[in-house]
Amino acid sequence: MFAEERRAKILEFLRRHKSMTVSELAKILNVSEPTIRRDLAFLESKRQIIRTHGGAIAIEYLSYEPTFFEKESLEKSAKEEIGKLVNDLVKDGDIIVLDSGTTTLEITRNLEDKNITVITNSPLIVRELSIRKNVEVILTGGTLKKGTLALVGPIAENTLSKLHADMAFVGANGITLDAITTTNLLEAEIKRIMIKIASTPYIVVDHSKFGRTAFVKFAEPKEVSAIITDSGIDPKWITAFKERKIQLITLGGVGR
């Protein structure tokens, strides 16, 4: 089978099944997993698919959002690294906003028991902070989006719009030089407001999110104070963001 024919088959399978793993595709097409990974990289460069952890989805399903628990184990060490970086930024007396997501939950787990106020739309973050004696917690309220366990909608938006924070830590599904994106319109609006109400808004994303574009744009990198990521980021992105004068914070230090 020629490469072009194999890639056409991959697209056909992804469109039929929405998403598939590298191992599934390799078995069906009777080729090695490295061959499939190269094919997926080619198809992604043509904006026909989006690669995910261990597989891919067709471009038609960019609004597809894995559940919270499906995502929780992905890039675990990277999220822990981001959590430690955020802990160093947060000081006693700060008011911070934590978006709902697996990265921000890991941030919460790495926060020391400081005298801070946390505003969040995540019931799981509230549960995590409920035993912290020195942390005051404000839950936005709203409608529970069951897949991602985020509180969204007019109630959450109204609560957030009346508040002010020193810092916000907001997750994303994709980030490029021109766009920060997520998969859902309601969550995108919450993220926009979180960025707006914070004096210093940060985007928190692991290295796998760079170069990806999801369904809804909610900000541009130049609109936030910095992007916090892990040391696994491809150096080409560090160079690219530096050229745009967009600040990146990683374990190796601050790049601009």
TrEMBL record:
Residues 3-58 form the HTH deoR-type domain. InterPro entries: ArsR-like_HTH, Carb_Metab_HTH_regulators, Cro/C1-type_HTH, DeoR-like_C, DeoR_HTH, NagB/RpiA_transferase-like, Tscrpt_reg_HTH_DeoR_CS, WH-like_DNA-bd_sf. Keywords: DNA-binding, Transcription, Transcription regulation. It comes from the Archaea. SUPFAM superfamilies: NagB/RpiA/CoA transferase-like, Winged helix' DNA-binding domain. PROSITE patterns: HTH_CROC1 (PS50943), HTH_DEOR_1 (PS00894), HTH_DEOR_2 (PS51000). Transmembrane segments: none annotated. GO terms for molecular function: DNA binding; DNA-binding transcription factor activity. Residues 11-38 form the HTH cro/C1-type domain. PANTHER family: AGA OPERON TRANSCRIPTIONAL REPRESSOR-RELATED, HTH-TYPE TRANSCRIPTIONAL REGULATOR SRLR-RELATED. This is Uncharacterized protein.
